[in-house]
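hey
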C-alpha cells in the first residue's frame, strides 16, 4: 500500500492506483457478466444491502466497491487448479426487512445463486441469513453486531449453534464496551450515561449485554427504556437524562431518529449538559452531520473502518486510503466507513471461495466459511477464534466529527481519537469534550 503525504494527500503511486480504480468504476457496467459461459464454470453470488430508504446511506458506496470487485474477477478465479467465472447479482432491500428476505429468496429460487452476501444492520443481514439457512445456501454477512445476528436469530448461550449455512463477521457488544471505556476516559465527566436504545434487534442486544459491561467499568447507566423506531417526540427521555445529570449520552438509533432526538436535546438544554455524545448506527456518515450543522461538531462514534486503516483490500487491490480516495474521485462525495466494510465482505467471500474444495458445492463452501481466516480491509478475520460458532468479531476505533479546516470543501472531518479495541490502527487526533456551538 502506498503511503499518503498527509491526512488529505496521496502519493503519486497512490494517485495512479486510485485513477485506475476510478476508470474501472466508470468503464465496467453494473450488469457486466463473466466471460465464462454458465453452469458448472460460473459461481453466482447474490449481494444484498440497503441502497435506498431510511438506512440507504449505508449502501451509498456499494456500487463503487462492487464494480471494483467485478473488474478484479473479470478473468475468473482459480480454485483447486480449475478456473471459475464469478457473477454478482445486486439487490436493494429498500431498508425493509421483509423485502430483504424476499430478495434473498428471489436470488435463491429465481437466480440460482451459489452464495449470498449481505451487509449493513440486522434489518438486512438477519432476514437474509434466515432465508439462506432455510434453503441450505451458504451466506456471509457483516456490519451488524454479531450478537444481534447470532442470538437475535434464536441461538442460545452455551448451546450448539443452530446454524449450518450462515456466517457473520462484525464488531460486537464487547468491542463497544472496550472502546467506550477507553474513549470516555479521555474527557472528565461524572461517568453518568444516558442510554437511548430502540426496541429492535440492535437495541435488545445492546441493552442485555453492553449496559452490564459499562456498569462493571464504573459507569452509572440511566436506561430510558425501549422506544419504537420513527418516534417523533423524545421529551420524556430527554427530561429523564437532564434530571439524572447525565454528562455522557449513548444511542443506537436509525439515523433519522438521532437527528430528531439531538435537535430536541438542544432545544431542551440536554445537549448543553452533555460532554460526550456517542452514537452507533447513526452518525456514521458525513451527510447526517451536515444536516445537523453546528450541532454536529464534536459528536462521537465508533468506526468499523476508516481511511487511515493500515490494511489492503485483496478483492479491490487497493489500500484503505486509496479505496477512500477512489470513492471520492468517482462519486464526488466524501468517503464513508461502509466503503471499506463492504470491501472487506468481498475480501472474505473471495477468500472463502478460493479455500473451498469445490466452490460450487454448497456443503464444501459452508465448510470453508467455518474455518475461514482471511486478510481484509478491516483487518484479519478468523472464524476459528470464536467467540461462538458462525461468528467472529472485528475491531472498532473511536472517532470524533470535527470542523473541517478553513478552505476545505467539506464541513466535517472524521478523526480517530481512541484505539484500545484496535491498537494496530493509528490515532489521528486528540479527543475533546462536546461543546454546543452556535
Amino acid at each position: 500500500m502506498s503511503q499518503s503525504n498527509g491526512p488529505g494527500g496521496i502519493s503519486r503511486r497512490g494517485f495512479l492506483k486510485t485513477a485506475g480504480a476510478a476508470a474501472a468504476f466508470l468503464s465496467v457496467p453494473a450488469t457486466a457478466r463473466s466471460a465464462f459461459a454458465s453452469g458448472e464454470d460460473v459461481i453466482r453470488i447474490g449481494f444484498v444491502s440497503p441502497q435506498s430508504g431510511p438506512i440507504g446511506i449505508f449502501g451509498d458506496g456499494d456500487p463503487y466497491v462492487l464494480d471494483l470487485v467485478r473488474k478484479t474477477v473479470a478473468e475468473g478465479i482459480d480454485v483447486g487448479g480449475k478456473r471459475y467465472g464469478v457473477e454478482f447479482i445486486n439487490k436493494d432491500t429498500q431498508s425493509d426487512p421483509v423485502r430483504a428476505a424476499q430478495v434473498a429468496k428471489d436470488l435463491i429460487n429465481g437466480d440460482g445463486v451459489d452464495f449470498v452476501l449481505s451487509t449493513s444492520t440486522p434489518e438486512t443481514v438477519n432476514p437474509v441469513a434466515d432465508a439462506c439457512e432455510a434453503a441450505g445456501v451458504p451466506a456471509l454477512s457483516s456490519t451488524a453486531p454479531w450478537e444481534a445476528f447470532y442470538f437475535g436469530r434464536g441461538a442460545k448461550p452455551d448451546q450448539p449453534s443452530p446454524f449450518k449455512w450462515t456466517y457473520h463477521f462484525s464488531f460486537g457488544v464487547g468491542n463497544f464496551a472496550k472502546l467506550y471505556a477507553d474513549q470516555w476516559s479521555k474527557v472528565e465527566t461524572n461517568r453518568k450515561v444516558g442510554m437511548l436504545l430502540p426496541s429492535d434487534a440492535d437495541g435488545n442486544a445492546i441493552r442485555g449485554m453492553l449496559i452490564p459491561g459499562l456498569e462493571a467499568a464504573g459507569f452509572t447507566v440511566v436506561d430510558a427504556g425501549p422506544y419504537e423506531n420513527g418516534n417523533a417526540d423524545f421529551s420524556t427521555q430527554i427530561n429523564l437524562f437532564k434530571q439524572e445529570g447525565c454528562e455522557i449520552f449513548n444511542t443506537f438509533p436509525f439515523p433519522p431518529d438521532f437527528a430528531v432526538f439531538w435537535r430536541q436535546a438542544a432545544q431542551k438544554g440536554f445537549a448543553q449538559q452533555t460532554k460526550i455524545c456517542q452514537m452507533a448506527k447513526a452518525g456514521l456518515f458525513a451527510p447526517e452531520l451536515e444536516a445537523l450543522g453546528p450541532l454536529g461538531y464534536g459528536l462521537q462514534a465508533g468506526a468499523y473502518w476508516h481511511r487511515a486503516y493500515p490494511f489492503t483490500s485483496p478483492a479491490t487491490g487497493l489500500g484503505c486510503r486509496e479505496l477512500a480516495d477512489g470513492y471520492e474521485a468517482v462519486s464526488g462525495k466524501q468517503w464513508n466507513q461502509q466503503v471499506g466494510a463492504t470491501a472487506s465482505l468481498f475480501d472474505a467471500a473471495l477468500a472463502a471461495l478460493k479455500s473451498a474444495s469445490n466452490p460450487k458445492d454448497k456443503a464444501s463452501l459452508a465448510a470453508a466459511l467455518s474455518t475461514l481466516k482471511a486478510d481484509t480491509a478491516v483487518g484479519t478475520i478468523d472464524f476459528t477464534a470464536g467467540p461462538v460458532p458462525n461468528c467472529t468479531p472485528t475491531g472498532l476505533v473511536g472517532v470524533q466529527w470535527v470542523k473541517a479546516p478553513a478552505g476545505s470543501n467539506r464541513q466535517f472531518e472524521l478523526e480517530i481519537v481512541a484505539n484500545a479495541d484496535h491498537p494496530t490502527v493509528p490515532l489521528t487526533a486528540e479527543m475533546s469534550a462536546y461543546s454546543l456551538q452556535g
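The domain at 12-171+306-392 is CATH 3.40.50.2300 (Rossmann fold). DSSP finds 14 helices and 18 strands in the chain.
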